[in-house]
Amino acid sequence: MANSHLIPTYKRQPVAFERGHGAWLFDGDGNRYLDALSGIAVSALGHSHPALVEAITNQASTLLHTSNLYEIDVQTRLADRLCALSGMDAVFFGNSGSEANEAAIKLARLHGHNRGIDMPVIVVMESAFHGRTLAALAATGNANAQKGFEPMPAGFVRVPYGDIDAIAALEDHNIVAVHVEPIQGEGGVRVPPADFLPALRRLCDKRDWLMMIDEVQTGVGRTGHWFAHQAAGITPDVMCLAKGLGGGVPIGAALVASAAGELFGPGSHGSTFGGNPLACRAALAVLDTIEHDGLLAHAGAMGESIREQIEARVGELDHVVEIRGAGLMIGIELSEPCAELVDAAREQGILLNVTAGSVIRLLPPLIIGPAEVERLVDGVCHLIESMTTTQTMQAD
Ligand SMILES: *Cc1c(COP(=O)(O)O)cnc(C)c1O
Question: Which entry of 214, 227, 237, 264 is annotated as an active-site residue?
Fold first, then answer.
C-alpha cells in the first residue's frame, strides 16, 4: 500500500477483504472475520444476501440510471414504502448521509425564511455527527473534524446532548429548527433520557421549530424499530436516512412531514444520482427482506441478548463504565482510551470499532444469528477481561 495514489484521508487497517457471506468477511489468505461493524451500519442484510443480489442484478440488467428529469417508477414506490413505514409525507433522495443532512439544513432555512427570519439558526448537539460536507460539518459537534476548514457555515447553536432544559432556555428568535440523532453514533453510542424526544417534540410544536432527526445510523431496523424515534412515539418533521437503507448501495434520503411538507418545490433542490433505479431497487429489497424475515424483532432480540450477556460477564469490572444502546447498535464505554482493541479484535477474527476514544461500538448486520452472537460476546468479553489482567499486573 506504499506509493498509493489514494489521498490518505483514512487511517486504514492492514487487511483487505475479497468476499463476504452473511455476517462473515474473508480475506485473500482465507481467514474469516465476524463482521460486527457492517461497514459502519451499512450492510444491514450482511454480505451477499440473495434477495439483495437478485434485486441488484435484475435491475442492472434492465436499467441502471435515467435521470430525475423523468418519472422513475421504482423511486416512487420506494418513497411510498418509506412514508408508509414512517408516517412521513414525502421523500427527497440523495446518495449519502451528508447529503440527507444538507437537505435537512436547507429545509430548516426555508422554513425560517417563510416565517420572515433572514438569518435562521438551527440547534445542534455537542458530540453530534452529521457528515463531512461543509454545512453538515458545521452541524457536527467535533472541533477536530472542523479544524482547518474554517470559516464554518454560520447558523448553528450548540447545546449538550439530550438536555431539553438547555434547548428550552435558548432565547434566540432566529431559531427555526432542532437537529438531533435519536442515539448518537460517532459521539459514543449515547442514549438520551427517555423523555427527551417527546419533550423536544412538544417544544418544537410550541415554538414553531422543525424537529429534525438524523437517523442515518439508527434507521432502517438498526435499533429493532424501523426508525429509532418510533420507540419514543413521536413523528419528526424531517428525518435523514442513508447507511443501512441500500444495504451497501449508496443512497440517502430526507423525509418530510407536516410543517416541512411543502417547503421544497420544483427547482429548490436536486441531485443527479439521487434515487436512481439501481439504488431504489436495492433499498426496496432491503425493506422487503427486513419485513419478510422479521428482522426488526430479530435485531431487538439479538441486541438485547448481546447486551445482557456482556453485562453479566464483564459489567462488574472496574474499567467497564456502561453498556448501552438499542437493538444492534451497542456501545461499551470503558474508563480509558481503548483504540488498540480494534487491532486486537481483528487479530482474533472480529471486526469492531472504537468511537469517542473509549467506547467499543458494535453494529453487526441485522441477520446475525445466535451462534455468531455467542462468538461475538465471547470475543469482546475476552478483550475487555484481558485489559483488566494487564492493569492488574501493572499495579502489582
Ligand atoms: C455516518 C453518518 C452521517 C454521514 O453519512 P455519510 O454517508 O458518510 O455522508 C451523518 N449522520 C450520522 C448520524 C451518521 O452516522
Answer: 214
